[in-house]
Design brief:
Keywords: Cytoplasm, Ubiquinone biosynthesis. It holds the Pfam family BMFP. It is found in: Cytoplasm. With about 90 residues, the protein is mainly α. The chain has two domains: about 40 residues, no CATH class; about 40 residues. The chain is about 90% helix and about 0% strand. The chain contains three helices and no strands. The N and C termini lie far apart (about 110 Å).
């Protein structure tokens, strides 16, 4: 008589073979193929690409804030110069 471990291993092997030969395996492959095709059509990026773009955006926003301050200063200087000239 087979030991309990051998029986379980044999049972697991038989179930695995049954699943591999069943329509479930085909369905799983088809679903994976459809999902892969769908993801390929979507405009997705990797997490690394997202993080890089987020960092670039942060730097751009910081630079814009600095430039806005400079523009306000220049506008003030121009307006003050006009007021003095009048």
């Amino acid at each position: 008589m087979a030991t309990r471990t051998e029986w379980f291993e044999d049972f697991q092997k038989n179930i695995s073979e049954l699943i591999a030969k069943s329509p479930a395996a085909d369905i799983e492959r088809n679903v994976k193929a459809v999902m892969a095709q769908t993801f390929t059509k979507l405009d997705l990026i990797s997490r690394d690409e997202f993080d890089t773009q987020a960092e670039l955006l942060e730097r751009a926003l910081a630079r814009i804030a600095v430039l806005e301050v400079k523009v306000r200063e220049l506008e003030t200087a121009v307006n003050t110069g006009r007021a003095s000239a009048e």
